[in-house]
Design goal:
Layout (H helix, E strand, L loop, with lengths): L4 H8 E7 L6 E7 L3 H6 L8 H9 L8 H15 E3 L2 H6 L6 H13 L1 H12 L15
Antiparallel strand pairs: 1-2, 2-3
Amino acid sequence: MVTNLEQLKQMANKEIEIPGWSVEDKISVKVKRVSLMGLAAKGKIPNQLLAAAQQVFTQTVKSETSLKDIGEVMELVAEETLVEPTVKDLDEIGLELTDEQKIILFNYSQTGVVELERFRKEQSNTSSNQHGPGVQQKA
């Protein structure tokens, strides 16, 4: 039996939990997976960012790739991935996605829920947020 369009639509958008703006907070958002190659083919990735997008996609970021370019690619993917609330919705109330949120959204866009499971396991394995014995304390 062929999957109908309504089922496809429901399958395309997922509600996931990502970190909030403080360490202990989590928020639920609706997301969809996106294709970097699809974004490039549709002209949604500006020419000057194509090299950075390719390096992010293949995980071969070179030292000459600017952090600004990588940040713009991550921002673009977050905008395309986040369905509800949208990045524009967050901007309107004065919130900006954190780096951690952008990385999780990027990873979700490329690998789906598999990457989120790794994040959840890492989060559940933390016994405290205290520095280890080898970290120098503030002077």
